[in-house]
Amino acid sequence: MGWNITAKYYEACNCALGCPCNMSGFPTHGNCEGVVAFQVVKGERDRVDLAGAKVAEGVKWPGAIHEGNGVAAVFIDASDEQRDALLPILTGEDPGLPFEILAATISEIKGPYFEPIEIVDNETDSTVRAGDKLDVQLKTFTDPVSGDPHEVHMVIPGGFIFTDGKICTTSAARVEVDGFGFDHTGNNAYYCNVEWSSENRMAPAVG
Questions:
Q1: Considering the chain, what percentage of its residues have pLDDT values greater than 90?
Q2: Which of 32, 69, 175, 201 is 20 to 30 A from 62 in CA distance terms?
């Protein structure tokens, strides 16, 4: 089923600032734990308007992401119609990046939890909350001499999640739900605008 999403994207993880996963594929501490979230600015699947829908996921992988065996706690704030349209996208049932790749690395899903997600969009000072279960507060870097905001970008031509992300850190990065949880406050984070769709597919295997 064809789909497309334009969204604001928020990410916070346990890696050092900049996140070496984006350079070498391997996380700072040998494992990857973090939150990814987005709110749809515009989008649709099978004539269902996805604008306004919000998704947040806490995810834990025992090693590098590409090595798999991840566990995800999924939160969705959307109408019933939007939920039905989003779930096949998020699980990779409807192919298209980035979920076609990410879903293949997940072995267990907790939820999905259908509940309000509060997103205050303020670029690298944005907030994402799902009740008392998930709390992420992005924090802009400041110049140590002047105290002015210090904008830093990660540019990844051909990146399957984003191609130009603003790097920041966090003053909160916590998930706790049904025995699943972590707190990685003060580590790496990203803010960016993304465009995803079923037209953007994983490259075919060679050989």
A1: 92
A2: 201
